[in-house]
Amino acid sequence: MIQHLPIVPILLPLVAAIVLLRKREGVDPVRRTISITTTTLLVMASLALTLQAADGHIFVYHLGNWPAPWGIVLVVDRLSALMVLLTSLLALCCLMHACSGQDGEGSNFHGLFQLQLMGLNGAFLTGDLFNLFVFFEVLLLASYALLMHGGGKPRVQAGLHYVVLNLAGSSLFLIALGVLYGSLGTLNMADMAQRVSSLPAERTGLVYAGALLLLVVFALKAAMLPLYFWLPRAYSSASAPVGALFAIMTKVGIYAQLRVFTLIFGDQAGQLSGLAQPWLWWGGLATLAVAAVGVLSARDLRIQITYFMLISVGILLCGQGMAAVDSRGALLYYLVHTTLVSGGLLLLADMIADQRGKVGTRIARGRAFHHTTLLGALYFVGAIAMAGLPPLSGAVGKAWLMSTAAFNEALWLWPVLLLSSLAGVIAASRAGSTLFWRRSDGEPGGTHLARGKLIGTASLLATAPLMVILAGPISDYTQATAAQLGATQQYRNAVLSGNTRAQEGVE
Amino acid sequence: MEALYAITTGVLTACGVYMTLRGRTFPVVVGLTLLTYAVNLFLFSMGGLTTHGAALIGQNEAYADPLPQALVLTAIVIGFAMTAFSVILAMRSRGDLGNDSVDGSRTDRDPDQDSRRESKA
């Protein structure tokens, strides 16, 4: 039974989605129960996977028992397991938030949500580049529909841009796959890594072009500088649970970059090794700088949070461009922190909008409302973590990343990162003081706080202090992950060795 | 044959990119469709072009690489679904926003129509 664990994170949401899609309209307690139960099981399954992967073993699941370079494989190493766990934790909190009413604003929320999870988990687990494309499409198709959940003009408008851009991105992805398959003759990532090392010189140019095309595609998903303009509008106009789940979507791009450019174009790739690093480094710095301006200029809390997400994307891209292995460990720690906290902040923004009525999340004087202490405290925690002030997890991640920079990297990274954090602090404190203190006199308005919304939001924001308390074990894990990413030989051996039984884990 | 194939793919791609960059939703959808066709053709040729060869080993001297054919089938299905979705979305945005501009803004008028209106006036 245990050797089938790697496929569970894909099958479980698929089955749940099929069950949930049978009836289109309305929501009832049964469907909510199915959805929450599935996601809870998903958390447990991904926790089991992470615990198994934690000792450094790489599990390979051969679909249909076809041997590796011919069949499709699922590969669970530390990075995949961590990403799947992160996805399911975020999803569970978003779902709790959604179940207090927002899932009923449109049709089919729960089914689409599960399909989205299936696509995300598949993208993190697969060891085949074409399969990665297929799972990208699954998660994108679900996200197109989820983005439109609830309807309304801003959503349709943002959705149109999002869909068109991603369709163009998919075409580029296919062209890149074509070029790479034509010159390498395989699409299994481990096999590609093997073949890149013995590439004849006349094909280097083609593979280089293919790799850079892939970089563009992943940069579009991750929202790197010239390709980020779709993000603030799309994420801020989506309904809160969807926007919060989308916090993991940019990380799919980061994950794909990490996987492809450390495995296929890693140290063994000769001339082609490290070809993406300078692009990621300079692109990351530029994203960071522009996003800091965006944070300062935002007039709406949701837009501001999406620009905070972009700051973190910039930091994650810079981390990939740095030479030290430790930087990747720091990057992964920061990735976990930023996904959970930015998701939590988007959920919180929705709760604040509920209370403020017409003004919504605009950073302007609004009516007085109830529950200011509770919401204010949650915002305080979230904003401190997101802006990167000590003592919460954002500061730990940023400080760790800065400490791993070599001298010539630090010359660029330190000023840009610190100035962007300063911009973040200024913007967040201005937004917070306006939202909570600049209120008109009079009878406080607002509704009561739904329990599900509160639990979902608070548990996401609670990860900020938790990740500081548990910083030891988490950083050990991310550091080991970074080391495993660097040791590509182990990954290739695990996938390509003929002895499949031994690789499938303990029976 | 290679030259013809390459020219066809190139022309399709160029038309697709041009149409995708237009300001109205209908040309954009058509552009995306053309782009998908071009990509499918490209993907099909990535294992090399073989004439008179089935994708079976041992039937014939020449055989075609079966993997691109399988991949292109997947890509066609996905591309078709995406096109259908974008058509529906374009119609929805026409209905909701009241015009078919990609930005949804009324000020973004068609210059041809404007000049016609001016000449009438």
Automatic annotation (TrEMBL), chain A:
<feature type="transmembrane region" description="Helical">
    <location>
        <begin position="305"/>
        <end position="325"/>
    </location>
</feature>
<keyword id="KW-1133">Transmembrane helix</keyword>
<dbReference type="InterPro" id="IPR001750">
    <property type="entry name" value="ND/Mrp_TM"/>
</dbReference>
<feature type="transmembrane region" description="Helical">
    <location>
        <begin position="279"/>
        <end position="298"/>
    </location>
</feature>
<keyword id="KW-1003">Cell membrane</keyword>
<dbReference type="InterPro" id="IPR003918">
    <property type="entry name" value="NADH_UbQ_OxRdtase"/>
</dbReference>
<dbReference type="InterPro" id="IPR050586">
    <property type="entry name" value="CPA3_Na-H_Antiporter_D"/>
</dbReference>
<feature type="transmembrane region" description="Helical">
    <location>
        <begin position="34"/>
        <end position="59"/>
    </location>
</feature>
<feature type="transmembrane region" description="Helical">
    <location>
        <begin position="205"/>
        <end position="231"/>
    </location>
</feature>
<keyword id="KW-0812">Transmembrane</keyword>
<feature type="transmembrane region" description="Helical">
    <location>
        <begin position="374"/>
        <end position="392"/>
    </location>
</feature>
<feature type="transmembrane region" description="Helical">
    <location>
        <begin position="331"/>
        <end position="353"/>
    </location>
</feature>
<feature type="transmembrane region" description="Helical">
    <location>
        <begin position="412"/>
        <end position="433"/>
    </location>
</feature>
<dbReference type="Pfam" id="PF00361">
    <property type="entry name" value="Proton_antipo_M"/>
</dbReference>
<protein>
    <submittedName>
        <fullName>Monovalent cation/H+ antiporter subunit D</fullName>
    </submittedName>
</protein>
<comment type="similarity">
    <text>Belongs to the CPA3 antiporters (TC 2.A.63) subunit D family.</text>
</comment>
<feature type="transmembrane region" description="Helical">
    <location>
        <begin position="120"/>
        <end position="147"/>
    </location>
</feature>
<feature type="transmembrane region" description="Helical">
    <location>
        <begin position="79"/>
        <end position="99"/>
    </location>
</feature>
<keyword id="KW-0472">Membrane</keyword>
<feature type="transmembrane region" description="Helical">
    <location>
        <begin position="159"/>
        <end position="184"/>
    </location>
</feature>
<feature type="transmembrane region" description="Helical">
    <location>
        <begin position="6"/>
        <end position="22"/>
    </location>
</feature>
<feature type="domain" description="NADH:quinone oxidoreductase/Mrp antiporter transmembrane">
    <location>
        <begin position="127"/>
        <end position="418"/>
    </location>
</feature>
TrEMBL record, chain B:
<keyword id="KW-0812">Transmembrane</keyword>
<comment type="similarity">
    <text>Belongs to the CPA3 antiporters (TC 2.A.63) subunit C family.</text>
</comment>
<protein>
    <submittedName>
        <fullName>Na+/H+ antiporter subunit C</fullName>
    </submittedName>
</protein>
<keyword id="KW-1003">Cell membrane</keyword>
<dbReference type="InterPro" id="IPR039428">
    <property type="entry name" value="NUOK/Mnh_C1-like"/>
</dbReference>
<feature type="transmembrane region" description="Helical">
    <location>
        <begin position="70"/>
        <end position="91"/>
    </location>
</feature>
<dbReference type="Pfam" id="PF00420">
    <property type="entry name" value="Oxidored_q2"/>
</dbReference>
<feature type="region of interest" description="Disordered">
    <location>
        <begin position="95"/>
        <end position="121"/>
    </location>
</feature>
<keyword id="KW-0472">Membrane</keyword>
<feature type="transmembrane region" description="Helical">
    <location>
        <begin position="28"/>
        <end position="50"/>
    </location>
</feature>
<dbReference type="InterPro" id="IPR050601">
    <property type="entry name" value="CPA3_antiporter_subunitC"/>
</dbReference>
<keyword id="KW-1133">Transmembrane helix</keyword>
